[in-house]
Amino acid sequence: MTKATGVNRKNKWPYLFIAPYFVSYAVFSLFPIMFTLYLSFTNWDLFGARDFVGLDNYRQLFLHDKFFWKSMLNVFLFIVGFLPALVLFGMLIASLIESKLIRRKTFFRLSVFSAYMTTPVAVGIIFALLFDWQGGFLNNLFIELGWIRDKINWLGSSDSARWIIIMMVFWKNLGYFVMFYTAGMAGVDTSIYEAAQIDGASPKDVFLRITIPLLKPINLFLIITSIISGLQLVEEPMLLYSGWASGASMVGGPDGSVFTPIWYMFDASFNGTAFKYGKGAAIAYSTFLFIALFSVMGIKWFNRDGDSK
């Protein structure tokens, strides 16, 4: 009996050592998550009482709130714009870096990846300087080349504003995709490519029939995480329309063309005189539902060949 008690006392020490992590996780992560879920069922402005309204916030969002669906449409257009381009150009650049034509592979990998390490504030400043209406580099370049006579307000048009956001996300994340693809290609056994060349396969066939199928797990990871980050997009459009670049501070950009769900959540919860924390929490959890839905759809789509066998 004494020996068993000693063993039980020794078994308590590991739990004691890992207890601080679980306590900190419960206080700083689990409690805010659960409290935000509770707030989504209330009408609270921080100062007054928290009135429980049930599903009214969600019903208002899904059935009557045009701004919420506008923001979801915007991020969907952004994802459709930058994700295929990232996959295509990421694979092509990675293939070029891993080919025999490039000798200093590490240098080119770091050169491409450097954009991903740039802070969002710096990215916003770079693109604001490029597309600024009055002193932007792009307008001045086009005028010097004689392509345009009058300066174009790139940030004042809804169509061009969406394309600028797509280019920002593409430029920042291209190196991230290239690094994953180069790592995946470097891990492929060279004997596979050698056997394909002996059989007379062209470089195109090797790329389409060997490289792409072997990169399927990497593609799954990159596409799912890009969908998640795309639905959470907020820093890039907010930085462009903070005031100095666009000429005036515009929530959501021209005609709400770059309004995103997370920006809408921030605007509803913290911007203005009325703090609608219940509505902001409902927007956050509604966005989470769409993230989960599109993630499951993406996984099912990638595994469709395996399920059919």
From TrEMBL:
Keywords: Cell membrane, Membrane, Transmembrane, Transmembrane helix, Transport. InterPro entries: ABC_transporter_permease (IPR051393), MetI-like (IPR000515), MetI-like_sf (IPR035906). This is Carbohydrate ABC transporter permease. It is found in: Cell membrane. Its main location: membrane. It is a multi-pass membrane protein. Pfam families: BPD_transp_1. Residues 72-298 form the ABC transmembrane type-1 domain. Belongs to the binding-protein-dependent transport system permease family. It comes from Cohnella boryungensis. The chain crosses the membrane at residues 21-41, 75-95, 107-131, 163-183, 214-234, 282-302.
